[in-house]
Design brief:
9% of the residues lie in helices and 40% in strands. It is mainly beta and 162 residues long. The protein binds biotin.
Length: 162
């Protein structure tokens, strides 16, 4: 960022007292133009752990809000040895929403199941980020007659560890 623009942005934030905690105004889109884009809490990129001890690492998202990552579950409904598994998701843009909703899918590398998570990132007064999520775990069953028992639902709460 051009230093004079950064300094002016910081002064404006301090004066208005309304810039999100830890946010940073990024470079203008062009001469004389301002950008709403911010970096700050709830950008989702990083390492998160839930109350079961499962860990996920999320990449930085692209301009459309799409991200990928890796999920290492601490528990499993499968008998197979647990392995880290890929995930793909998207979130609403953090330049418009400080506490974005998001969703991602984990395609389990060691079982035939798939889990989808939806949730929202919340930031408390001290800047601590929490992901409140709800998931659906779809298990592969032998026949359509067993479809009724193929879906589990639950909730997980994640905290950032990195
Ligand atoms: C399987 O059991 O076939 C794959 C692993 C599923 C792990 C589930 S997904 C929802 C819940 N949250 C976790 O962190 N792990 C379990």
């Amino acid at each position: 960022m051009v230093p004079r623009v950064a300094a002016a942005a910081a002064l404006l934030c301090a004066f208005l007292g309304s810039c999100a905690r830890g946010s940073l105004v990024l470079p203008a889109d062009g001469p004389g133009r301002t950008s709403n884009k911010t970096e700050g809490p709830c950008t989702l990129a990083g390492t998160w752990v839930n109350e079961l001890g499962s860990q996920m690492v999320l990449s930085a998202s692209n301009a459309a809000g799409h991200f990928s990552g890796s999920y290492l579950t601490a528990v499993s409904a499968s008998e197979k040895p647990i392995r880290a598994s890929k995930l793909k998701g998207s979130h609403h843009q953090t330049n418009r929403r400080a506490q974005p909703t998001f969703g991602f899918t984990v395609q389990w590398a060691f079982s035939d199941s798939t889990t989808v998570f939806v949730g929202q990132c919340f930031v408390d007064a001290s800047g601590q980020e929490t992901l409140e999520t709800t998931w659906l775990l779809q298990e592969e069953v032998a026949s359509r007659a067993d479809a009724w028992k193929a879906t589990r639902i639950g909730k997980n709460v994640f905290h950032r560890v990195k």
